[in-house]
Amino acid sequence: MNFTAQRVPYQQTGYFSRIITDYLNGNDFLKNYYEHPVSFSGIEAAINQRERFPTDRSLLVKSLETQYTDLPIEDAVKKNIESLSDKNTFTVTTAHQPAIFTGNLYFIYKILHTVKIAKTLSVSYPDRYFVPVFFMGSEDADLDELGNIYLDNEKLVWDTKQTGAVGRMRTEGLEKIIDRIEGEFAVDPFGPELINLLKDCYLHSENIQQATLKLLNHLFGSYGLIVLIPDNRLLKSVMRGIFRDDLTTHLPFEITGNNLEHLSTQYPIQANPREINLFYLKDNIRERLEIKDGRYSVNNTNIHFSSEEMEKELAGFPERFSPNVILRGLYQDTILPNIVFVGGGGEMSYWLELKPLFKHYGVPYPVLILRDSFLLIKKNWKAKMEKAGLSSEDVFKPEEKLMEDFIRHHSDRQLSLTSQMADLHVFYCNIKNISGIVDKTLEQHVDKLESQALQKLEELEKKILRAEKKNHEDVRRMIHEIREALFPMESLQERIDNFIPWYAEYGKAFLELIYQHSLTLEQEFVILEEIS
Q1: Computed from CA positions of residues 336, 341, 345, 349, in that sequence, does the dihedral angle turn out positive or negative?
Q2: Each residue of 308-338: pLDDT tens digit?
Q3: Rounded to the nearest 5 degrees, what angle is found at the Cα of 373, between the Cα atoms of 370 and 377?
Q4: Is 70 exposed, middle or buried (0-12, 13-18, 19+ CB in 10 A)?
Q5: What share of the chain in percent tops pLDDT 90?
Q6: Distance of CA 23 to the CA centre of its chain
């Protein structure tokens, strides 16, 4: 694989929200909503805070060793797990739900970005050690989001009637999607390897979270990635006090609510806290906990508890309490010696809501780093872009804008009526002067006539441009094909496409390509163009 890299500011792409571009640009308003800048000084400050926090490292290591018991563990992973016992070891963490077959491309990008940061920091701070962690959101129950992938813009949906946490769901039914994948990619250089991997992970695992663990261990074990499944009794036992506060005094709701009131004056809110920010998790149930008529009720079920019964349930079965987005980050950074969180735009937005919650419970707030984004341009599309006169930066523009730019640049005909509009304005100014001498009230009438005439000329200019576009219909089709390939469904490539076609063609070399071009603290969008 031979690709060249180019970087552009995130804001230039037009695909990122204002809160994210403001965060990247160091907007003064947002500085109260995070703790550390994305810089080495910010990293050092995060390390200093983390060193003073009593992380239960032995509990963490014990849980990870148990989790990996039945897996062939890479030496790099084993070393990283063991190193977590050392007070000078820290984590760089990303998180995602266990989307089937990894879901979208950015799933891969965020992991490799996390790995790159951890390795870079280990070199920059030789007296400390940093390990990459993937925190699996296996308790998420949104099957509509996690139970499908896109291949060539075709949506392949897992046909299952299971309910509850997706991570706990059995893998029956996924063989149909794997058969579909095999039918298309078995002839590719690494197609058989990939298909065997998917079959091994998904058809020989108890559930989705175990399948995802096996898949990530195979793909990223050599990079030392630790996958943590937080659906764990021992780990959740650490959170009993915070869970109790959420259930009884609703303190997390109060703390984050006050913070959001000010933030919402400038930006849309990504995640709103609830009075209770816990789900009840048991068997095939993951439903919100609510208070109804003085009792705790599990939404959409007949399960309910008195205050005393709920206290016993929490004391005896902490694993049955599943934090929502408001408490998930706090859980993550309570059990991990974490100093960096790598997340997408949506994740960054809701993490900016949580700083007061971390402060109240004395949990160190990590450096927030926006995950890397890539646009992958294969050589056949690069050739078409060159034929259409498009640069890699141009392709972020809307299709109509690209066509207009091409026409204005390549047409030898007059397509703009700007000069004529200026002459028209001079004409009507003279008319207004003449009529105004006779009757001052006529000036408004002349202004209206000018406005109507200018509007007609603008409409004519658009018709001229449309007519010229028809003379270049072949270019229009080419631009449409380019945009459709690089921005499927009018979205970023990474938010729709899956890693499967890339791995089937290139194997692990694809992962290494992304890793080599992953950034650390630079925070820019990366365009990768194939050159041979």
Answers
A1: positive
A2: 999 999 999 999 999 999 999 999 999 999 9
A3: 170
A4: exposed
A5: 81
A6: 15
At residue 370, φ and ψ (nearest 5 deg) are -65, 130
Question: What is the structure's pLDDT at 414?
Answer: 45
When pLDDT is cut at 50, 70 and 90, the band that residue 408 belongs to is low
- Exposed / middle / buried, residue 167 (Cβ in 10 Å: 0-12, 13-18, 19+): buried
Asked if 111 and 208 count as a contact pair (C-beta separation under 8 A), the reply is no
CB 133 within 8 A of CB 228: yes
Nearest to 510 by CA among 519, 522, 501: 501
3-state helix, strand, coil in the chain (%, to 5): 55, 15, 30
Partners of 5 in the β-ladder: 528
Strand-by-strand arrangement of the 374-377 sheet: 3-8, 525-530, 374-377
Model pTM score: 0.89
Which residues, listed in sequence order, are joined to residue 427 by a DSSP beta bridge? none
**Partner residues linked to 527 by β-bridges:** 6, 375
Q: Per residue in 218-261, pLDDT tens?
A: 999 999 999 999 999 999 999 999 999 999 999 999 999 988 99
